[in-house]
Amino acid sequence: MLGDAGLNKKIKTSDINRPGLAFAGFFKHFPYERMQIIGMSEYLYLENLSYDNQVEILSKIFSHEAAVCCILTKGLKPNGAMIKIFSDLDVPLLKTELGTSSFVSDLIYYLDRKFAPSIKIHGVMTNVYGLGVLIIGKSAIGKSECALELLKRGHKLVADDVVVVKKHSEFALSGGGLEITKHLIEVRGIGIINVKDIFGVGSILDETSIELVVKLETWELEKEYERLGSGDKYCSRFLGVRIPKITIPVGPGRNLAVLVETASLNQRLKSEECFTAKNLDFKLKKKK
Fold first, then answer.
1. Annotated catalytic residue within 227, 283, 285, 287
2. 151 pLDDT more than 70
3. 109 and 144 both lie in a single domain
4. Catalytic-residue membership of 122
């Protein structure tokens, strides 16, 4: 690695750039602030230029104050011009043995997740039958106890108490936990337990997509709750992304874990365009 004195430079964007056009002399709107990736095509083009031209072009790109680093792919070795420029400018020059396409794909995926807008909310994040389920509700409503029962039934815990919600697109959210409380769950009357140690490594996930929001609330006798499930409800309070939502009233004798399991399976059916209530309504109307 060259230019290691510049490793303290901050990457401020998830976008990357391949500077092929700049090597040909076109610098209009050049994104100096992005990580620059040099693959085989850019490398061979640069090699065809004279040493002085190489130094001039590399200097023009990486002497800019916004320049952060450059990465050579496919195990390419830095040539003389690169050794001079990156050493003189203290801009990191890194390399990887990975092919350009696969490396760029992995890098974009990683950066997109690192730069994704995020918020912290009070709740429990679980994965039930492969579906990411965010359980919310007032303190002491039973969220952690529900998650504990789901663990006993073979499902996975992602985060307890504080869930870090990230927005990956206009339609996708993920939920994870804080590093300091990873794999921990607080159960009133018992205390804090380590889920990984007690239930095994197969009982935890670091992150999962949020595909269903389950709100737990105290059962109110005068309130009308969903009986048919024919109307879809959504939650948009988390970074503006619409996520399917159901409300489960909490009362004596109700097995919340079984209800969450059933809601998760029903949501998976809905994602496959199978709507039980709507199908029943259609059959009843057709019978008339």
1. 227
2. yes
3. no
4. yes
